[in-house]
Specification:
Elements lengths: L4 E5 L20 E2 L2 E2 H11 L4 E6 L4 H6 L4 H9 L3 H11 L3 E6 L6 H7 L1 H4 L4 E4 L3 E4 L4 H12 L2 E7 L9 E4 L7 E3 L2 E4 L10 E9 L3 H6 L11 H5 L5 E5 L3 E4 L3 H13 L5 H12 L2
Parallel strand pairs: 1-4, 1-6, 4-5, 8-13
Antiparallel strand pairs: 2-3, 6-12, 7-14, 8-12, 9-11, 9-12, 10-13
Helix pairs in contact: 3-4, 10-11
Amino acid sequence: MAVTKAVLPVAGLGTRFLPLTKAVPKELLPIVDRPCIEYVVAEAVAAGITDLVFVTARGKGAIEDYFDRSPMLEATLEAAGKGALVAEVRRVAELARVVTVRQDQMRGLGHAVLCAAPAVGNEDFVVILPDDIVDAEVPVVAQLLNVHAARGGAVVSLKNVPRERTNRYGICAGPMLTETLMRIDRMVEKPKPEDAPSTLSIVGRYVLPAAIFAILRETPPGAGGEIQLTDALARLPLAYGHVFSGQHFDTGNPVGLLEAQLHYATRHPEYGAAARALCARFAGS
């Protein structure tokens, strides 16, 4: 059965962007002319996802509004003869079907995914962390779904990180079946560098079976006192890690967001030339 549902946890407080995120969800911070969240939604849609489950919290309603129709705005633009803008506003609203569920307590990524269980049902599904944006010729979600279609089981995206930073990530280890495919036999959440079983970290993309929900219900708090998705994944009977191809940006921190903004601005069909000129100007100053 084709995987058509994606869970996007967006309940986080965005503390690294305070005070801005007191009023604006971090997922709506802009990269050129689109918010961060649209980049990962576009990736999911390009991979065949049709249904999005946003796991939200109080103060995150603007995310749902962004992907909803706005008849008053459309009518105002129509009356002003701005047909191209009307089409763009409608395009965003028609990307996918959206439902939201609330995470009433911040108890970790595993808990956030568990909150989506009623909306996902008994189906395999994708989890996408909106902070992780990847510019790839083949969407990372599609790369993982290709592995899932061929081999089954859970599939996570992997990236090599410096050993001194392994304590920031979920780290996977196991035999490499190909240059890019691991059969995972061990997962550790945020290990000390000296204890890390490898330097291959999970980066923001997962294909999971519905069985993960029952495991999450029994998973005790782990690192940081939170329910860790990695701890639940380690109990699955079959899991693969795919070392994805593409340029990754962690937009959950100001420097990562700036990197993404510069990357996409310099490649933008309308603003690219101006952005490259600005980069050259400041590089020379």
